[in-house]
Amino acid sequence: MTQIPVIIDTDPGIDDAVALVIALSHPRLAVQLITTVSGNVDVVQTTNNALKLVEFMGKKIAVAKGCARPLLIEPEDASDIHGETGMDGYAFPGQQSKVVDAHAVEAMRRVLEQSDEPVVILAIAALTNIALLFSLYPEVKSKVSKIVMMGGTLSRGNTTSAAEFNTYVDPHAAQMVFQSGVPLVMVGLDVTSKAVLTPKEMTQIKTFGEVGEMCYGLFQHYRGGSLKTGLKMHDVCAVAYLVSPDLFRTQDTFVEVALEGPAAGVTVADLKMAYHSVTNCAVCLEIDVPLFQNWLVEHLALAGEKQYG
């Protein structure tokens, strides 16, 4: 089986944690590097959380700490959704590993330059690190096969009435990435808000060894939905798209990001291509929810079997 080389840029975060567990254990993904950014909680905590997850899964993958704030605006977090630490609900073993001695942007540059084949960037956080990477080292764009990002929305937002969190907290970075010319897939709220784990799936997941216990513990502290009606697995959808794109229906279009005022962070798509002659993004429009739920349960079961493997 040919593996896909991946850099994961993240801000764990409960749904990030589930996404990382699946990505670190998926047989088709070869994770080269994990980079962190402020978002769900501050960058010190997101970095500690990433280290905990890598150790928890028994992996030897470098973690590099990235930007502590957005490019131009004041930082905001989502600790009201993910808890004070970002991953409340499970007592992880003592942390032994350390971050690499390089900023996330520099660490990404090194991985991309040294790679013999193009790398996918799986972006499940604000796009600050990636915008800086392309600004400082535009030559590495040719080494990125595509970016699969969780962010944006074509309908309602989850932070303001129209803006999704990852694009809202650093809209300038998001706009820079959309304008970068690198192939981009936007996995936004139009599909991720439907990608819920119901009590049925959560009960199954609880039985998947330490991985199941960890996920189930985090779920008790997650405010991204309801334990009764379903928890939204936003960031997991980006992993699902990367390895199982048939779960989604997409459309190529042109997307840009509003930068100021009450619409800041809003992703505006020219779905009819009435005002643009070229596209810059494939936007996910629909998801097969039952198949996604089965996929998620199956891959968390696999993660439970492969932990420390």
From TrEMBL:
<keyword id="KW-0812">Transmembrane</keyword>
<protein>
    <submittedName>
        <fullName>Ribonucleoside hydrolase RihC</fullName>
    </submittedName>
</protein>
<keyword id="KW-1133">Transmembrane helix</keyword>
<dbReference type="InterPro" id="IPR015910">
    <property type="entry name" value="I/U_nuclsd_hydro_CS"/>
</dbReference>
<dbReference type="InterPro" id="IPR023186">
    <property type="entry name" value="IUNH"/>
</dbReference>
<dbReference type="GO" id="GO:0016787">
    <property type="term" value="F:hydrolase activity"/>
</dbReference>
<keyword id="KW-0326">Glycosidase</keyword>
<dbReference type="InterPro" id="IPR001910">
    <property type="entry name" value="Inosine/uridine_hydrolase_dom"/>
</dbReference>
<dbReference type="InterPro" id="IPR036452">
    <property type="entry name" value="Ribo_hydro-like"/>
</dbReference>
<keyword id="KW-0472">Membrane</keyword>
<feature type="domain" description="Inosine/uridine-preferring nucleoside hydrolase">
    <location>
        <begin position="6"/>
        <end position="293"/>
    </location>
</feature>
<dbReference type="Pfam" id="PF01156">
    <property type="entry name" value="IU_nuc_hydro"/>
</dbReference>
<keyword id="KW-0378">Hydrolase</keyword>
<feature type="transmembrane region" description="Helical">
    <location>
        <begin position="119"/>
        <end position="137"/>
    </location>
</feature>
